[in-house]
Specification:
The complex is a heterodimer of chains A (259) and B (614).
Chain A lengths: L11 H10 L4 E4 L6 H11 L4 E5 L6 H5 E5 L4 E5 L1 H8 L2 E5 L6 H4 L3 H4 L4 E4 L4 E4 L5 E6 L12 H4 L3 E4 L5 H12 L3 H15 L12 H12 L4 H13 L3 H15 L2
Parallel strand pairs in A: 1-8, 1-9, 2-5, 5-8
Antiparallel strand pairs in A: 3-4, 6-7
Chain B lengths: L1 H17 L8 E2 H14 L7 E4 L3 E2 L6 H6 L4 E2 L3 E2 L3 E4 L2 E2 L5 H15 L9 H15 L4 H14 L8 H15 L28 H6 L5 H9 L12 E4 L20 H6 L10 H10 L3 E4 L4 H5 L13 E14 L4 E14 L9 H15 L3 E9 L4 E2 L1 H12 L10 E8 L2 E8 L7 E3 L2 E2 H19 L2 E10 L3 E8 L7 H8 L9 H13 L5 E8 L11 H17 L3 E6 L4 H9 L4 E3 L6 H13 L1
Parallel strand pairs in B: 2-6, 8-9, 11-19, 15-18, 15-20, 20-21, 21-22
Antiparallel strand pairs in B: 1-7, 3-4, 5-6, 10-11, 12-14, 13-14, 16-17, 18-19
Helix pairs in contact in B: 2-4, 4-6, 13-15, 15-20, 17-18, 18-19
Classes of the chains: A alpha/beta (259), B alpha/beta (614).
């Protein structure tokens, strides 16, 4: 298995491991592109567990998670959904952006997320008991103040929670170097642009530049693209449609990389 | 004729003296203000500062022969930072290259983000700031070089100047070319040519402000609570002078028959009494280098509490319901005092009709288009008995059940394209207290911003089909709480409603709890599954009686908790800069938003609604 790059920011690895040992489900909060998904894949590889990732959306049904009957050659057969597979194999099931899923869908997680740790599958009349190695992890971005999209308290209170944020300057530089192989000077410059843009949060921008976008720009730059163009496409255009804000952000990029 | 020739001559001679560059290369602050302010914040500048135009100040440096004849070139616009603003030149037209003129704006903005504390000497400070900025943003090196080269070309060579001036000039040029190389403190005996790349050596207002640091605590408090008067384009340097009591014309003698209340008397000392000729006053203002404002004596008036009868109960409104009794929370006794407040529902006359103000039309149509996409949710509903397409999943399920000999419940085998209407109603409650009568700029009051917000909000929401109502409130003790109905849930947003919105005016005080309770009861009657109670305010709850400070806050908090228990979602939008101190307590950390620039409120409010409900 390819080694996954992850740069810890605190004691999150220890927390994850202890949660897994004690059969506790985990809720990860944090802005988009700050490393939530990467962290889960990293921990899965560290603990040597199979990982099933489900990106939640508002059309996700319970059978998408649990499984359904399919028709084969003249016969039907049952096909496990990702959640069922994870329970059977004793792996990690990771539901990304769980608030996007409809509330009736998330309810099927309840018996799995408390001390019963069971998954009833009505259609085949089976109730799976999750093995000790199974772990349920969900994540969402609390940044949106949307009252229509909130986790039900009954769902929320079944998890232990941890908040992710963008890494510190030094760590982010390390991440850029480690992830893309870019030189450390360019990484420094990219992170300084990111910090400048992040100070605009809530004032001029709704969402600020994520580590993921920095990695995108770093990859383009490493491949020989002019840094100003790379940052324009990967950061400025991505963050805003407003022309004046774009000009201002481009100036910030140019103040770092020059023209 | 004389005047005509004079004008021609003025035009000609100032043209000769002052036209180093084409007008087409000029960059004006008003065109780049917003970009610069984002740039300023991104580079680490203080987010609470506004960017505004600097007034021209005398530089007293040597002028050219023609400039002397023309009497021009005495003043120059330089940049500086004070407590509230970053002042930048209104126009930059020094260079033949438009990009360079623009770069100078960016350079000055960038330089203003650097704070140098290690030195007080102007020249050393600027060099250190330049070095620090270039170090933080190495990409600026090239541009700095170009700017220095271009601005040196505009300066006189030290050789052409008398000795004392030559020394300073040489030092300035060296400092520009090689920042950090001039380390000795220069003695500026003669005025030197202004340095356009650096901020103002002696910013107007700042030095005086420092010397006035001894002002009493009361003064400061008074100053901060006063609404600031801001000219939207240009700021004039102001100087505080002590009021000269002996010149006070009204202190002649006291006669019992002409009783002035104290507050009235104090305000007579205003220097801007004759405002009949506004045009003259305006041009005088522009010519004036400094405005002198008296400072002494005005204080007590603004601390006094007195009953304001400003907004009259004008004849063009009728009372809908009177004497609605509402409870109030007394936190000291920890009890809800029943029937403590009396609320009056008022509606302005329905005959007055109005159109959307012209200034809002463009933005309103833009918002409308954006909001149309919010109108409804379209999705495929599965397991339907009837529908446009076959539900393959359901069909497979049925087939597999049949082939496994499992009897399955009857299920629909079609999927239908469902248009789900948004099931949402929103009540917007606007604070129309006396404090909204304060100016935020020369021609804009808070109440105008609230009015514009109400307009844009209505325009946007009427295109979504969401049910909404608009109310305003103000109070005068517990016996009179005005509750202005601008638009009820049942009314259509039309010219009549627009008439009511354009007629809103600032009222009395802010008894927020009672208003929220009444608004909650209206909203709770709506039959939608989601109910949003948006509260638009500019300050803390307060009233003339005991309703202030903790009392008002606790009552408001109680009212909000009650609203939450009724299944409503209260959310507060405020422009009060101190909101962080009490709003989290009232609405919770995620229950409010602070709009730091009141003029941005109308658009922000609409976007916020989209964000909250999409």
């Amino acid at each position: 298995m390819e080694k996954i790059f992850y740069e810890p920011f605190g004691n999150e690895c220890e927390l994850f491991e202890k949660a897994w040992k004690n059969n506790l489900p985990l809720l990860i909060k944090g802005p988009t592109g700050c490393g939530k998904t990467r962290f889960v894949s990293y921990m899965a590889s560290q603990l040597n567990l199979p990982l099933y990732t489900i990106a939640c959306h508002d059309d996700l049904t319970a059978s998408d998670l649990v499984g359904r009957h399919l028709i084969g050659a003249g016969d039907t057969f049952w096909s496990d959904g990702p959640l069922t597979k994870a329970v059977r194999e004793g792996g990690i099931c990771y539901l990304d952006e769980v608030v996007e899923a409809r509330k009736d869908t998330t309810v099927i997680l309840h018996p799995l997320a408390d001390d019963r740790r069971i998954l009833p599958i009505d259609r085949i009349g089976e109730t799976l008991q999750a093995p000790d190695s199974f772990m349920l992890v969900v994540s969402y971005n609390p940044g949106y103040q949307n009252f229509l999209k909130k986790l039900k308290p009954s769902t929320r209170q079944r998890f232990i929670s941890i908040t992710f944020d963008f890494p510190s300057t030094n760590q982010e530089e390390k991440i850029l170097v480690g992830e893309t192989g870019i030189d450390s000077f360019t990484a420094k410059q990219l992170v300084s642009i990111a910090n400048a843009i992040r100070s605009l949060k809530d004032h001029d921008l709704e969402e600020v530049v994520s580590t993921r976008l920095l990695i995108y720009s770093a990859k383009l730059i490493r491949d020989g693209l002019d840094p100003v163009i790379a940052c324009h496409s990967a950061i400025v255009e991505t963050l805003t449609d407003d022309v004046e804000t774009q000009i201002a952000l481009d100036e910030v990029v140019q103040a770092t990389f020059g023209r | 004729m004389e005047e005509f020739v004079g004008e021609l001559w003025h035009k000609f001679i100032t043209g000769v003296a002052e036209n180093p560059c084409d007008e087409k290369n000029a960059v004006e602050l008003k065109d780049v203000r917003r970009i610069l302010s984002i740039y300023f914040r991104a580079l680490g500048g203080d987010a609470s500062l506004n960017i505004s135009g600097a007034s021209a100040t005398y530089h007293q440096a040597r002028r050219s022969f023609f400039q002397k004849i023309a009497g021009s070139g005495k003043k120059i616009e330089l940049s500086w930072c004070d407590a509230e603003d970053l002042r930048l030149p209104n126009k930059i037209n020094y260079f033949q290259d438009k990009t360079l003129n623009l770069d100078l704006y960016f350079w000055l903005t960038g330089l203003a983000t650097i704070k140098v504390t290690s030195s007080h000497d102007w020249m050393i400070k600027n060099q250190l700031a330049t070095l620090a900025l270039l170090d933080r943003f190495p990409g600026l090196h090239n541009r700095y070089r170009k700017l220095v080269a271009a601005s040196l070309a505009l300066r006189k060579s030290p050789n052409q100047l008398p000795k004392e001036e030559a020394e300073v000039e040489a030092a300035i040029q060296q400092a520009l070319e090689n920042p950090g190389s001039v380390t000795q403190v220069i003695d500026y005996q003669k005025p030197f040519q202004p340095v356009i790349l650096w901020p103002h050596p002696t910013p107007p207002g700042i030095s005086q402000a420092k010397s006035k640091a001894k002002d009493s605590e009361d003064d400061k408090h008074d100053e901060s609570s006063k609404s600031e008067v801001v000219d939207n384009k240009r700021k004039h340097s102001a100087e505080r002078v002590d009021a000269e009591d002996k010149k006070n014309g009204l202190l002649l003698m006291f006669r019992a028959e002409s009783i002035f209340s104290w507050a009235e008397f104090i305000n007579v000392n205003r220097p801007h009494d004759n405002e009949d000729d506004l045009e003259n006053a305006k041009s005088a203002l522009e010519d004036m280098d400094k405005l002198s404002i008296t400072r002494k004596g005005k204080l007590k008036a603004s601390r006094l509490k007195f009953d304001l009868d400003l907004p009259p109960d004008s004849g063009d409104e009728f009372v809908l319901k009177e004497g609605i009794l509402l409870p109030e929370w007394n936190w000291k006794k920890q009890t809800l005092v029943p029937d403590h407040c009396s609320l009056k529902e008022i509606c302005s006359d329905s005959d007055v009709k109005a159109e959307l103000p012209q200034s809002l039309k463009v933005i309103a149509s833009k918002l409308k288009r954006q909001f149309e996409s919010l109108v409804s949710l379209r999705y495929w509903q599965r397991n339907q008995q009837d529908g446009e397409e076959i539900d393959i999943d359901a069909w497979i399920r049925l087939r597999s059940d049949i082939s496994r000999n499992v009897s399955s419940a009857e299920e629909g085998l079609y999927q239908a394209h469902i248009v789900k209407e948004r099931d949402l109603s929103c009540l917007l409650l606007a604070d129309l207290s006396i404090s909204t009568d304060a100016h935020i700029s020369n021609d804009l009051k808070i109440i105008d911003v609230i009015r514009n917000s109400l307009f844009l909000f209505s325009e946007a929401l009427s295109s979504t089909g969401d049910k909404f109502a608009l109310y305003g409130f103000s109070s005068l003790k517990r016996s009179l709480i005005r509750f202005d109905q601008l638009k009820s849930f049942n009314e259509k947003y039309d010219a009549k409603i627009k008439g009511r919105i354009s007629a809103i005016k600032a009222g009395y005080y802010t008894r927020m709890g009672a208003a929220i309770r009444h608004a909650s009861s209206i909203l709770a009657n709506q039959r939608t599954s989601q109910k949003l109670l948006l509260i638009l305010t500019d300050g803390k709850p307060n009233d003339l009686d005991e309703y202030e400070g903790r009392y008002g806050i606790e009552d408001t908090r109680k009212a909000i908790l009650e609203a939450k228990q009724m299944g409503l979602h209260p959310f507060c939008v405020t422009i009060d800069k101190d909101a962080k101190e009490y709003l989290p307590h009232l609405f919770g950390v995620n229950g409010y938003v602070l709009v730091s620039k009141p003029e941005e409120l109308p658009e922000k409010l609409v976007h916020l609604y989209a964000l909250l409900t999409h």
